């Protein structure tokens, strides 16, 4: 697959895992002009909230709001309704909440759109098995039998049945998810580590190049960029890895 630099940048979701808006703004200044997707997770959202998300949208970024909702259907419906009104491009729920919970998220989206707020329909995806979860943790700690891939595929099929647009999984499961749910069902893959990068708490990893070759739609990358001495150089080198 041959990507231009801008296409490659657009497939990268930078995880803005920072304690406050000032720290995240510093990174945004360093990455200015590179058309990446930006991911706001719970650390930054709980600190900087909707105003920070609005600021990203005003600057033209695509925004993935990663709050991983997992609650009773009625509560998730309300959460999805509020998130949709923020105008984000993508948000997620946990597939482990079940089909009715995922459908409730879509109902919350529909209700927000029918209110005439003028926002676009966000892509709604489900987290399958966290990329920090290893085979041993799944079987021995969480107590779910079978392989990680089996568990991911079960969740992916459930998400598709519920009407969602795709899943979060590791790049190692992209091929199996696409086979089970179709090529248009989106895969969003954290667990990305350039060769030699610190693995940290991730378990199921691949390099950016390997992930794109698996056919991932978007790759979520945090610390390999944000913890680098020169984040812009780190991101540019990942983009180069994707275009060759
Ligand atoms: O939903 C996510 O984005 C997510 C799901 C998952 O299974 N694993 C995972 O790492 N993430 C997020 O992806 C990002 C990965 O960050 P790094 O490990 O620093 O590259 C973090 O913001 C995580 O919250």
UniProtKB/TrEMBL annotation:
Record-stated family: Belongs to the OMP decarboxylase family. Type 1 subfamily.
UniProt pathway annotation: Pyrimidine metabolism; UMP biosynthesis via de novo pathway; UMP from orotate: step 2/2
Entries under InterPro entries matching the protein: Aldolase_TIM (IPR013785), OMPdecase (IPR014732), OMPdecase_AS (IPR018089), OMPdecase_bac (IPR047596), OMPdeCOase_dom (IPR001754), RibuloseP-bd_barrel (IPR011060)
Orotidine 5'-phosphate decarboxylase domain segment(s): 11-238
Organism: Paenibacillus abyssi
Quaternary structure annotation from Swiss-Prot or TrEMBL: Homodimer.
Domain of life: Bacteria
Enzyme type, top EC level: lyase
Reactions listed under catalytic activity: orotidine 5'-phosphate + H(+) = UMP + CO2
The name this protein goes by in its record: Orotidine 5'-phosphate decarboxylase
């Amino acid at each position: 697959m041959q990507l231009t630099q801008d296409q490659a940048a657009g497939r990268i979701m930078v995880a803005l895992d920072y304690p406050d808006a000032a720290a995240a703004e510093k990174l945004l200044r360093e990455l200015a002009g590179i058309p990446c997707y930006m991911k706001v997770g719970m650390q930054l959202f709980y600190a900087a909230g909707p105003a920070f998300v609005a600021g990203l949208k005003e600057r033209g970024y695509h925004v993935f709001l990663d709050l991983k909702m997992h609650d009773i259907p009625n509560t998730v419906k309300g959460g999805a309704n509020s998130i949709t009104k923020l105008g984000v491009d993508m948000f997620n729920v946990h597939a482990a909440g079940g089909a009715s919970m995922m459908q409730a998220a879509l109902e919350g989206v529909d209700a927000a759109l029918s209110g005439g707020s003028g926002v676009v329909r966000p892509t709604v995806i489900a987290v399958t098995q966290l990329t920090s979860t290893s085979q041993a943790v799944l079987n021995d700690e969480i107590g779910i039998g079978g392989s990680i891939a089996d568990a991911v595929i079960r969740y992916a099929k459930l998400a598709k049945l519920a009407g969602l647009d795709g899943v979060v999984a590791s790049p190692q499961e992209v091929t199996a998810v696409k086979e089970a749910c179709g090529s248009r069902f989106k895969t969003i893959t954290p667990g990305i580590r350039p060769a030699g990068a610190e693995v940290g708490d991730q378990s199921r990893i691949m390099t950016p190049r390997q992930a794109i070759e698996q056919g991932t739609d978007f790759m979520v990358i945090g610390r390999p960029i944000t913890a680098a001495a020169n984040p812009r150089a780190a991101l540019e080198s990942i983009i180069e890895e994707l275009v060759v």
